[in-house]
Design brief:
13 helices; 0% strand; 332 residues; mainly alpha
Length: 332
């Protein structure tokens, strides 16, 4: 008695593409969820900024002289669109956001987008300089402290970290100006345009970030150096430096990358005080001026810009986890 063996049939047509679509959706779903969360955060930030900035007072009082009449105030308020219902102003503001239309600056009489575009390069340059200072100092300091745990080098790094985290940025900036600009005449105290102008503001802005990154790298690297695969690498004859560089830093990099990403946003936000101290013509200084002038559209634009920076950086850091740690990539 014989049986006829038939080959299994392979589904064809649209059904065959279902597994492929499922795999693609499994990859895209986390990114789509994070993108949706990011958009929701930006919407909430824009809403809070819109309503809170209007609690600071009437910009018409700032723009007109003290002896202005009520009719002059009424005419200016109407020309600025501030006499419309608050809900109408809010809906118009939301309608312009997808088109990157943040309204016109009340003080500069220009689109907020154009005013921000003039100041963003200076802030990005300052943040980039501070990030370079942070990485150049914090990565070697944290690594050395972990490798020399409990010794003089480790205690020195820990002391410097505590000082850096407890010292206000504006005080650091003033101290650097007194030493290098007033005392030594080596660097300019303020201004913008050359590398010499960038040095002191970058160091000032990077002090806190250096302390945070160095401390976290030291702690993470100490945990990694006590793991089994590090002991195995040492048993095979690898020296301490090669062991740390080849096996330790990669495994300790995940929390460090997270903090560095957060610090990038903090560098942009923290530039407000630093730009004021060094008269740096960036978004931070523009934000202070906009608040003083009660320039509602410009304040809303700067707040949304800082929020978008944090959101984008956090999203990129989250997506980079899979490149650094295969376990994270495989779990998604």
């Amino acid at each position: 008695m014989s049986q006829t063996l038939t080959a299994p049939t392979t589904p064809a047509g649209p059904a065959a593409s279902v597994p492929g679509h499922s795999r693609a959706w499994a990859v895209l779903r986390p990114a789509a969820a994070r993108l949706g969360t990011a958009l929701l955060v930006l919407l909430c930030t824009a809403t809070v900024a819109f309503f809170l900035v209007r609690l600071s007072g009437d910009p018409v009082k700032v723009m007109l002289p003290p002896d202005a009449t009520a009719q002059q105030e009424s005419v200016l308020r109407h020309s600025l669109g501030l006499d419309r219902p608050l809900v109408t102003q809010y809906l118009d503001y939301l309608w312009g956001l997808p088109r990157f239309d943040f309204g016109n600056s009340l003080f500069y009489d220009q689109p907020v987008r154009a005013v921000l575009a003039d100041r963003i390069p200076a802030t990005l340059l300052l943040a980039a300089g501070a990030l370079v200072v942070t990485l150049v100092i914090a990565l070697p300091a944290g690594t050395i402290a972990a490798m020399r745990r409990g010794k003089a080098a480790d205690r020195g790094v820990i002391t410097a970290v505590l000082i850096g985290q407890s010292t206000p940025a504006f005080w650091v900036g003033i101290l650097l100006i007194l030493v290098f600009a007033v005392g030594l005449h080596a660097l300019p105290a303020s201004g913008y345009g050359t590398f010499a102008h960038l040095v002191l503001p970058s160091i000032t802005l990077a002090v806190y970030s250096v302390a945070v990154v160095a401390r976290l790298l030291r702690s993470s690297l100490i945990d990694v150096l006590g793991s089994d695969h590090i002991r195995t690498a040492r048993a095979r004859g690898l020296g301490p430096v090669r062991t740390v560089l080849r096996h330790g830093l990669r495994n300790a990099s995940l929390p460090v990358v997270t903090v560095v990403g957060l610090e990038v946003g903090s560098l942009l936000g923290g530039a407000i005080l630093t730009e004021q101290v060094f008269s740096w013509p960036g978004v931070g200084q523009l934000t202070v001026q906009a608040i003083a002038n009660r320039d509602f559209p410009l304040v809303q634009g700067t707040v949304l810009l800082f929020a978008a920076t944090f959101v984008v950086v956090n999203l990129l850091v989250d997506l980079s986890y899979g490149l650094l740690d295969p376990r994270v990539r495989n779990s998604r």
